Amino acid sequence: MNIQRHTGFYVIGLAARTRNSMEQNGKGKIGEIWHELLRGNLASKIPNKIGINLTAVYTDYEGRLDGQYTYLLGLPVSSILNVPANFVAKYIPSGRYSVVTSERGPIKRVVPETWQRICSMPVAELGGIRSFRADYEIYDQRSTDPEKAQIEVHVGLR
């Protein structure tokens, strides 16, 4: 368990409302967001970028694990001025986050496996009670090869 205290920051990207059951049965929206952002190199249109690591944000939770949430894929930014049309800005609040690192492997396998592990962790192992305000994944240099990827999931804690 790796607990970190983060200051708040904004991410600008493409977003959609979804839920875990939709993602698991093939009717989800997360894959579409990835495809749209990468296909058109839309990340290059995000103003005020801080770095190049894609960030996937989970926020606006309804009903904890089984309800809808907003999924946003984009980049951290220094300002939310001039958000392009069809893009959304979301704030990741400051606070305590448990950082969970995935195993290495195909990205389509390691991401859901890491979330399944997080959702089944006892509170003591996770480092606290989930806040369900915002969680996020970082896709850095360890995830450039989609067959040997490793990601970090930052889980918001109360």
From TrEMBL:
Cited SUPFAM superfamilies: Probable bacterial effector-binding domain
InterPro entries attached to this UniProt entry: AraC_E-bd (IPR010499), Cass2 (IPR029441), Reg_factor_effector_dom_sf (IPR011256), YobU-like_regulator (IPR053182)
Annotated AraC effector-binding domain residues: 1-158
Name this protein carries in UniProt: GyrI-like domain-containing protein
Domain of life: Bacteria
The organism of origin for this protein: Tunturiibacter psychrotolerans
Gene3D superfamilies given in the database record: Regulatory factor, effector binding domain (3.20.80.10)
Pfam families, alphabetized: Cass2
